[in-house]
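QA checklist item 7 of 12: single-chain prediction sanity check.
[x] sequence parsed
[x] length recorded as 158
[x] structure emitted
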Amino acid sequence: MSSLTQRIADYLDGSRQLRDAVHGLNREQLMARPVAGKWSTLEVVCHLADFEPILADRMKRVIAEDRPQLVGADEGRFAAALAYHERNLEEELTIIEHTRSQLARILRTLPAEALARVGVHSERGPRTLEQLLTGATNHIPHHVAFIHEKRKALGLPG
């Protein structure tokens, strides 16, 4: 399996990891904040659903444009303004799955050297497609660890 093929498989697996992490949680458990100062599980999922299209857009622009400007986004402002506790878990998971599926289809058409294409992030400077894909791939597992922490604090299996 080529490096790009494996990267795409790892990227796609994030959706499964997230769905597994929230499996069996009821609405009350999704909205609970059992770890002081941390988001609820639903807030974590909504954050991921809000940023998944942003991350995909950045990668698409790096693929399609020459050294595009990539605008940063403030997760705290999104969480404060976008009604996270009014949202539907299944809808959020579907957004993530469909976004990743679409981008994976695009990535499969690229030669491996496309990973070296560059965009310029407003806060982080130059970022290659490879760096963006790695960041997006790691984003869900990073947050799944917090969901497992919440499950444990609620006395639920991890």
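[x] summary fact logged: Residues 115 and 130 are 5 Å apart (CA to CA).
[ ] second reviewer sign-off
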